[in-house]
Amino acid sequence: MPASPEPDPQADWLRANQADLLAHLASVKQRLTRHAGRSDAAAVTLRPVAPATETGEPPLAGRPPALAQLVTAFNLSPFERDTLLLCVGMELDSELAGLCAASQTEQAGETHEGRGHPTFALALAVLAEPHWSAVTAAGPLRHWRLIEVGAGPVLTRAPLRVDERVLHFLAGIRQLDERLAVLLEPLPPPDADLVTSQAAIAEQVADVWHGAMHGRDLPVVQLCGSAADCRPIAAAAAGMLGLRAARLAAERLPSAAADLDSLLRLWDREAVLSGLGVLLLECDDDVPADSDAGRSAAAALATVMERAAGPVILRTREARRLANRQSVILDVTHPLPGEQLGVWQASLADLPLDTATLAAAATQFRLSLPAMRAIAAQARAEAGGSAPADLAATVWDLCRRRLRSALDGLAHRIESEQHWDDLVLPAAQQETLHAIAAQLRQRTTVHERWGFALKSRRGLGISALFHGPSGTGKTMAAEVLANELRLDLYHIDLSRVISMYIGKTEDNLRRVFDAAEENGAILLFDEADSLFGSRSEVKDSHDRYANIEVSYLLQRMEAYRGLAILTTNMRSALDSAFLRRIRFAVEFPFPDAPQRAAIWQRVFPPDAPTLDLDATRLARLRLAGGNIRNIALNAAFLAADAGQAVQMRHVRVAARAEYAKLERRPSQAENEAWV
Questions:
Q1: Cβ partners under 8 Å of residue 111, min gap 6
Q2: How far is CA 612 from CA 370, 621, 648, in A?
Q3: What CATH fold (topology level) applies to the domain 420-587?
Q4: Average pLDDT, 10 consecutive residues per value, the chain (675 residues)
Q5: Helices (H), 290-354
């Protein structure tokens, strides 16, 4: 005996929904038939609707037919319901056009065929319990765009048409209104459980609206954080309320008042038709607020937040003040280091892991849950037979690469291959640089585990001043630290940071530090005296804002969790208040003869052929390390072009060119290098 088929709740509901719609349409058609004086009209027929495989709809058990849902949600009277059904019937029954034409009185200049459409005049004459308020713009039929009124000199004789989205809803087809589909993106439910800190925020969001009435008195929730973190929280909070969420980028909001009003009505209607009850507005503050576009976008955003009838979440970098609606502000951060380590271990549970390196990655990098899971999947694909340390190193490098994009557009990334052995400095300076590296490695232990951060969050950032003559190794030292710690090093282009416009420099600095916070990169501000120089006496508004920018920088330097390095040739040019807040100051002295000899010994790579180079004699040239590297490179090209190993005569030619560039003549002692 064949097994009975499994019940299909979706198909059962569709059949029941179609039967209900047919019954109501038949009643309206019967009234229209009687009014037209005909008795031969056939029954309305509907083509069956295929069950959707993935609707995202609430459970079907106990769900009423679509028409009943619509009537209840928009408070339609029986007359308004039947007027809507009259328009629906025009789309589903080919006979209704003839019945409408036969039922309407012929007007001057109007053909029989021209009257083959529903009108308010026809509805008032044919349907039961007519009332004039159904015709008004404030009535639910027109306010919620359930029907569309065509052009015509007389309102009651203008053609009526059911809105396409409403027609599909009544037929049991679930799809987003195409006018919203180009603007909105429904958020999928979180693909996995949120970490504890973010789940707590989702519960807070749901609690703000739980039990509150649907309307404009609901507070707006402002989530201050990244899109990758806030979207799953918004979706989870909506799910706790039995709703779904959709995101809308603020820059896509229409500026015209009529278009904005239409968008709000369509959204409020869609909340009923598809369960998209939570609107997530995303504002990234990329458009300058003082520009025309910025002011227009801000006005549109404020209108939506204040008028949307339902739960609204604003995702933004900084909280905004709302004039006419209450607001609840919640800060959203990436998962905490302990939570990140748990995600890494859960995502890579079946692979050999070096927990120490993974713990360091969880501390160093700030990643969203989706980013961590994507990296884990990529690491798994690259794992092969990797050893635990190699797998953890792969995760570390993937984190670095993923987080580079935010800074690559703001600063120049320096690829570093320098090591401690390449750096020639006095012992005291070497010791200070090693101390900087140690603090970067151990900052989580000292700040979090040992509790120093609990005392004060101020002054936890690691900052260093590298000062000394040009070419003495300041940039190389930064490269050594980056390579030692396997971190990215970014050189800040001052021409892209400093601005003549008031407040613009501060904004540029904010963007740099915000982007760098994600991966804790090493920031190198070269020739910092031009940017961080002495604060001037306040003589006008520009001086006042310049001092504000310096103060802002001091705050960001103290709070930055990575390493910020300032380099300058003139330490005395820096503001004294700034120097007090620098944790390390490293002087890079002009190299003496033994140090110059050491630089000459290391400047040529092992694979470069050399012949009879005398580092002691070359050390008589009173040049900094940067100049020595220039001479070595130019001498190598001369030797390669001659097909020879690098010799003293090649170095001599390259040295003369370097002295000419420096507009210096070698002294007698320096000339003795070639004797």
A1: none
A2: 59, 17, 7
A3: Rossmann fold (3.40.50)
A4: 63 87 88 76 54 46 83 92 92 83 60 70 90 92 92 87 92 86 87 86 90 65 91 92 88 86 89 84 66 72 83 88 84 90 86 80 88 88 72 87 84 88 92 93 81 68 88 92 92 69 72 86 80 50 54 77 85 71 89 93 92 91 92 94 93 92 86 76
A5: 292-307, 337-347
> What's the distance, CA 615 to chain centroid?
54
Q: Which residues pair with 223 in a beta bridge?
A: 315, 330
Q: Which residues of 592-625 are buried (b: 16+ CB within 10 A; e: fewer)?
A: eeebbbbbbebbbeeeeebeebeeebbbbbbbbb
Cα-based torsion angle of the residue sequence 355, 360, 365, 367 in order, rounded to the nearest 10 degrees: 20
The DSSP H or E segment spanning 315 is strand 312-316
Q: Is 286 helix (H, G, I), strand (E, B) or coil?
A: coil
Class of domain 593-674: mainly alpha
- Token code pair at residue 3: 């097994």
Residue closest to 357 by CA, chosen among 394, 393, 381, 402: 393
| Collapsed DSSP state (helix, strand, coil) of residue 514 | helix
Say if domain 179-331 classifies as CATH 3.90.480.10. Answer: no
- Which pair of tokens denotes residue 481? 């630290």
162 strand-pairing partners: 147
How far apart (Å, rounded) are the C-alpha atoms in residues 319 and 218? 17
Does this model's pTM top 0.90?
no
Closest CA to 248 of 302, 187, 164: 187
- Interatomic CA distance for residues 411 and 393, integer angstroms: 25
